[in-house]
Amino acid sequence: xxxxxxxIFVCCVFVSNAQMFDDILKVSYQDYEGTARFxxxxxxxxxxxxxxxxxxxxxxxxxxxxxxxxxxxxSLNNIYNNSSVAGIQTDNSRIRAGISxxxxxxxxxxxxxxxxxxxxSYLKKxxxxxxxxxxxxxxxxxxxxxxxxxxxxxxxxFAPSYISSYEAFYDYNPLDWDVVMAYGTxxxxxxxxxxxxxxVLDKNDRGVYQQINSLTKGSSGETTIDIGVNCNDKFFAxxxxxxxxxxxxxxxxxxxxxxxxxxxxxDRLTYNTNLKIRGLGLNYKIGVIYKPVQTVRLGLAFxxxxxxxxxxxxxxxxxxxxxxxxxxxxxSMEVKYKSENAPLLSGSGGDYYLFVERIKTPYKATGSLAFxxxxxxxxxxxxxxxxxxxxxxxxxDPTNIFNSDIKLFFKNTVNLRFGAEIWMKNFALRAxxxxxxxxxxxxxxxxxxxxxxxxxxxxxxxxxxxxxxTNTVDYYTHYKDANKITENLKNRRFALTxxxxxxx
Length: 504
Prior knowledge:
8 helices; 14-stranded antiparallel beta barrel; single chain; 12% helix; Porin; disordered N terminus; 24 strands; mainly beta
């Protein structure tokens, strides 16, 4: 039987629909970090251009450059997470440095009225880094209860002769490995007289202590080739070809400890899951910018979906698809009993491929408006439409079920970006605001980003700095009927851009 099993998003944290959708959204988000100027102005560059990161919003922005230009941007991210469950709060943070953008623009003048520009760039799209740690006390609810309930919901499928076999991790998909490992460590057992599974907990037990540690890491970025044309400084057009690189990982450690007064022999358990995803995606973007008068600029852009796969995956030999995403998943469980000196162990014994072969992200459409007041300053706005219900998974069963759920629980969104800039000779002050509407119909997963920055120009060189803070709230549970975990996230980012304009 092929080692290509259940959905990558479900596997990382048991059976939580909320967490499944959270992971789908993470790999589908496209929220460019960009240069310090771009970030300080909220990314509202759809009608402005003239910045290497603006091509991520509207590729026509490349045609606005009058001179060849090179820029490099580095960032320092501090991701702060205040997590709470059942009234108990825990604070965590994760600091990571990286490259937000890198690119070059070459201006080619062919005629007096028409100017061609060529651009090559790297733009970071999403930062996945996050650390979560929560703990709680439930009087009468344990994950062990969930294991036995799940096994009893389909007794034939989870027949003892199957889940106790040596090939159990081959015969079952990772969504069901929790039951396999619970049986292998005697947390649940088949009761012939009752004709059902029973678990190790006594009905008079006073509950358990729970602790969950999760580490999410990685990022996605886009390498682009862009061509822009400037027609008499009135009409600008551009087309971009992009290749997205996806590197995503999640490690979850779930621990449970018996209450001191419990009657049962159960003492503690540790459940580990590890998910790694690599993918490559291709996309294109087209856009235009028009200046009806000198002070007004209008922009319009369309972004195709990304088709995420991994053409060099070692999964190809077992796959019906010529290019499959590289998804690796492993799990293990360690259980200690009061009457035993050594813990019992059960696990997959290595990484297994998962069944999702490709992911199609949603398309985007952006309309933009900007007012430019000579050398004094400007204001700009972008309005972006994204339909997250159009995310589509391709692979083996049950992709159709999850695609139906995506259409049922996801929705289209309207995202807004605002930016302003004031120039005082060679010194600039900037501010921005970004609002990303929640793509989830049930939970408010909206994002609010506040930003400010400064910049200097000295002859051919420019130095820009920005501070960006993104606030969002996330919700999920780690197994069926568990209390909801709430994460209040603040991503504080500092960006520095160094640029060089090449004179003719």
